[in-house]
Design goal:
The chain is an all-alpha fold. It has a domain of 118 residues. It contains 8 helices and no strands. The longest helix is centred in the N-terminal third of the chain and has 38 residues.
């Protein structure tokens, strides 16, 4: 019957309306966030501590730098900035690599020679490689180490690791050694920049120091030689 059908349709609509409202339908809840308060507090603290300086740097430095790049290079300023960033990264990488080589050489020069574990011939070979690659500081360090090892093997000095360069100068009474030791101290401890002249001087002068103490001393042989 038409009236019955209309009543049924109205009843179904009323039922849907009732079920669509609370408490029959609830809005989906968010997943629990127990650390939300902690993260919000950290964010507020960082904004209070760094927000002001960061905004100042942006307004007074970065904005002006950006305008300068755009004025100088036009639409290419992004490319130029990218090239500069890459070049800076490469330069930093080279400096870090050279620093690691120097630290490695410093560790080598500080290592004890008890038991004859170091070969001055091998150290000299590494010094030649460092000099040929332009690392003059490492070349000076290694040649100084090789020279002291040879003097110790000949009995001229007892334990060079336990003595400073100045103490060794007093022991050896060698003007040539004094000059090498003075320059070595300036490079290693005073941070003076080593040059190609320093590397060449060490290469030429150490044989003269060894020659001064060659007479009557033990033969200088590589580690492991019969």
């Amino acid at each position: 019957m038409p009236g019955s059908s209309s009543f049924s349709s109205s009843a179904r609509q009323q039922a849907r309306d009732i079920l669509a409202k609370p408490p029959y339908r609830t809005t989906p809840s968010h997943p629990p966030r127990p650390l939300a308060g902690v993260f919000h507090a950290i964010g507020r603290a960082l904004n209070a501590a760094l927000g002001g300086p960061a905004r100042w740097v942006y307004r007074h430095l970065l904005v002006h730098v950006g305008h300068g790049f755009r004025s100088a290079f036009g639409g290419w300023w992004v490319v130029v900035l990218g090239v500069m960033a890459v070049a800076l990264g490469v330069a930093v990488g080279v400096l870090i690599a050279r620093r690691r080589v120097r630290v490695s050489a410093r560790g080598s020069t500080a290592r004890s020679t008890e038991g004859g574990t170091e070969d001055p011939h091998e150290i000299e070979r590494r010094a030649e490689m460092a000099e040929s690659s332009g690392d003059h500081e490492t070349a000076v360090r290694l040649r100084f180490r090789a020279g002291l090892l040879r003097l110790q093997r000949r009995g001229v000095i007892v334990n060079q690791d336990a003595q400073t360069d100045r103490q060794l100068s007093v022991t050896l009474h060698s003007p040539t050694f004094d000059a090498l030791a003075g320059r070595h101290e300036m490079i290693v401890y005073a941070g003076d920049r080593a040059t190609s002249v320093d590397a060449a001087t060490a290469r030429a002068a150490w044989p003269r120091v060894l020659e001064e103490f060659r007479s009557g001393d033990a033969e200088d042989v590589p580690v492991g030689s019969p």
